[in-house]
Amino acid sequence: MPVSSSIVMNSTPLALIFAIIATAWFFDSIDLGSLTFLLGSIKSEFGLSTAQAGFLSSMSFVGMFLGAAIAGMAADRIGRKLVFQISMIFWGAGSLWCYYAPDPQTLGYARLLLGFGMGMEFPVALAIVSEFVPTAKRGRYLALLEGFWPIGFIAAGLLSWFFLAHFSWREMFLCQAIPALFLFVVRFYVPESPRWLADQGRAAEAEKVMAAIETKVAARLPAGATLDEPRPIAAGAKTERRFSFLELWSGEYASRTVMIWLVWFFALLGFYGLTTWLGALLQAQGYTDTTSTAYVVLIALAGIPGFITAAWLVDAWGRKGTCALMLIGSAVAVYAYGNAPSFTMLIVSGLIMQFFLFGMWSTLYAYTPELYPTRARATGAGCASAVGRIGSLIGPSLIGVVLPNLGNGSVFALGAGSFIIAAVAVLALGVETRGKSLEEVSG
Question: Quick check: is 234 in a domain?
């Protein structure tokens, strides 16, 4: 009897591939999220002004901009697997350099290198997962992949709390360098994307990867069960192969590119402008390093049901509607958080804020790689991420200027406005990709 794609995904090498990519993503998220909890201590140790601390936090995003832009095009040219491994070397080396940094200038350069590695990893991971997971569950698994970000953020908070209580921020960065060794797991257990191989004309290698997966799937099936026959997809018209960046601006992809670049820019400007400063904002109100860390971790817990809800909605309702819902919800909750009249309301609105923010992230990562064809998928995801990193770069620095001049309320109003602009872009220019194969939705 035929076997559904859900069995194929849940009991075979595809599940292992997803678990490996998600684990690497988790480690990367710890690196990125840790600065939210460590920035106050770094600011105090080096005697930095608010603007200087904002500039330091932005260095990671400069690196992420460069890494995302370069990695996407590289992955479409030389393969997903190799670029993914290289990214892990960069962020591991960057974390180690942060530990040894003797002054804020050196720490800034180290954060730049660390950000470069993280920026490389994100678009390539999205391309790998989107090209392996069956159509019916693609949105869910891409959303779940991004769900490892709030889990990593919470882990970063718990680790920061431990290291700040017993050691210092430096030992935290040293700890973060160790998981880079996970690249050896990627090297031996993650195959190259068969879609990419086929698109490059390497049909024999693509068939070899698929045959190995199917053999392992078949070995796990119940007695008498067989795999589904491959579903044929109508061949599209052959077009001249463009440089992958130019592909983003051809035909129907141009409006998609405008839309997703606007969404990434404003969503990340609002998100990182706020979250990078959450711990420092609480410390400025008199809370200790460890207490502020505990509060930020507490509200981050709401991110877990947030990404789980988004993972269900993207397949049950659709990518476009879910993305707009999460952005609008984020805007309302962020504004409420910035104007909370009491500590209780601060925590309640903070929980709601993180629910929608992490739901937004999950939807965005599920949506982006589906908008482009295989020949430009990593480039499309990478360039969107790179544009977002410009927003990430501007956000913390802008808030470092706005905060001392206009106060906390203006900081959160700025974040809310950013999310509203992103939601309008999705509603006006977004296309629905739910239930369609990658070939059907993007060619």
Answer: no
Count Cα neighbours of 399 within 13 Å in the Cβ-side half-sphere.
Answer: 31
Strand partners, 279: none
Residue 322 lies in domain: 2-228+244-442
Mean pLDDT of 258-276: 87
How many folded domains does the chain comprise? 1
435: left (phi over 0), alpha (psi -120 to 50) or beta: left
Q: Which of 236, 168, 199, 167 is nearest to 377 (CA)?
A: 199
Residue 237 has pLDDT above 50, yes or no: no
Identify the CATH number of the domain in which residue 140 sits.
1.20.1250.20
Q: Coil, helix or strand for 221?
A: coil
User: Coil, strand, or helix at residue 200?
Assistant: coil
Confidence of residue 279 (pLDDT cuts 50, 70, 90): low
Structure pTM?
Answer: 0.72
Two tokens at 425? 């872009």
Q: Over pLDDT 90: what percentage of the chain? A: 12
Let me know: does 381 contact 123? Beta carbons within 8 Å.
yes
Distance CA 321, CA 427 (A): 8
Q: How far is CA 325 from CA 146, 225, 255, 337, 368, in A?
A: 17, 41, 21, 18, 16
SS3 content of the chain, % helix, strand, coil (to 5): 80, 0, 15
Query: How does pLDDT run across 38-61, given as a tens digit for each residue?
Result: 887 888 888 888 778 877 877 887
pLDDT at 231: 57
| 421 domain-assigned | yes
| DSSP symbol at 133 | S
With 0-12 CB in 10 A as exposed, 13-18 as middle and 19+ as buried, what is 246?
A: exposed
